[in-house]
């Protein structure tokens, strides 16, 4: 499966370094902390969540489940598409509603490849920000890619639901594991069967990182520290690890929690 464009829009040109940041998906006991972290990561959402998002005034960020949301990750089917000199507009449907997504072009004959493989009646994944124009909401997409694995569609909907449940007060049965226990990973990440089927197209190191995060991050809202992840990777090269983790972050598979050294799987 193609990635979005191989670039990292979240480090602001800082490359693969781990700089201070935050996330609404860390500790859930502080409303002020949740609001503060919203701009630091990507939120998997449905169309209905975008349409129902709250905005206290025109210049404010949108909020979903009481958390500021700047970057969203959406998967849906292209129902219609139209092109102008400045942008390509896609009508996206995901079973919960419809919304337009706009990809802005650098020129009328943009050949950057940012919309390569996007076809009507096919599924796409996109990242962007919620905007309002003429009283109508749309997503201003910074990245868009075709979805070729049907499992990824269902996986995204489950993740959107899971994150929403966590932000509303947590899910039952998610007691933290005792420190130093790694049984879930050694057994093959018991809760990750669906996740792993959606990861089959990824490179081995990318899959291994996701498997570690799935097992070690269960019941841990603070995420997993990068040094702890590396311990399970059997001597993986540090540069290779950084590149793989950056790619997973860029493409919406993982997000940072307490800071840019702690990660959790989406």
UniProtKB/TrEMBL annotation:
GO CC annotations, alphabetized: chromosome, telomeric region; DNA replication factor A complex; RNA polymerase I complex; site of double-strand break
UniProt GO molecular function: single-stranded DNA binding; telomeric DNA binding
GO BP terms in the entry: DNA replication; double-strand break repair via homologous recombination; nucleotide-excision repair
Residues in Replication protein A C-terminal domain copies: 176-260
Subcellular locations according to the entry: Nucleus
Top-level taxon of origin: Eukaryota
Key words, A-Z: DNA replication, DNA-binding, Nucleus
Pfam annotation, one family: RPA_C
Signal peptide: none
Similarity remark: Belongs to the replication factor A protein 2 family.
Record-given protein name: Replication protein A C-terminal domain-containing protein
Lineage: Eukaryota, Fungi, Dikarya, Basidiomycota, Agaricomycotina
């Amino acid at each position: 499966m193609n990635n979005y464009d191989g670039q990292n829009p979240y480090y602001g040109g800082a490359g693969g370094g781990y700089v201070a940041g935050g996330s609404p998906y860390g500790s859930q006991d502080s409303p002020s902390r949740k609001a503060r972290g919203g701009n630091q990561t990507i939120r998997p959402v449905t169309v209905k969540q975008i349409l129902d998002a709250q905005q206290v005034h025109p210049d404010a960020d949108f909020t979903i489940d009481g958390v500021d949301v700047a970057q969203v990750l959406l998967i849906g089917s292209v129902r219609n598409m139209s092109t102008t000199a400045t942008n390509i507009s896609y009508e996206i449907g995901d079973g919960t509603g419809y919304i337009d997504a706009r990809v802005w072009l650098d020129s009328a004959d943009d050949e950057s490849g940012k919309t390569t493989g996007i076809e009507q009646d096919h599924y796409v994944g996109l990242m962007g920000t919620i905007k309002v124009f003429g009283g109508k909401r749309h997503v201003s997409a910074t990245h868009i890619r075709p979805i070729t694995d049907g499992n990824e569609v269902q996986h995204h909907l489950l993740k959107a639901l899971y994150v929403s449940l966590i932000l509303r007060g947590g899910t039952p049965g998610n007691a933290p594991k005792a420190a130093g226990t790694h049984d879930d990973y050694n057994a093959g990440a018991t809760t990750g069967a669906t996740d792993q089927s959606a990861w089959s197209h990824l490179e081995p190191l990318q899959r291994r990182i996701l498997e570690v995060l799935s097992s070690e991050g269960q019941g841990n809202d603070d995420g997993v520290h990068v040094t702890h992840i590396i311990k399970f990777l059997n001597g993986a090269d540090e540069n290779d690890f950084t590149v793989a983790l950056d790619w997973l972050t860029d493409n919406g598979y993982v997000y940072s929690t307490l800071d840019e050294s702690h990660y959790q799987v989406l």
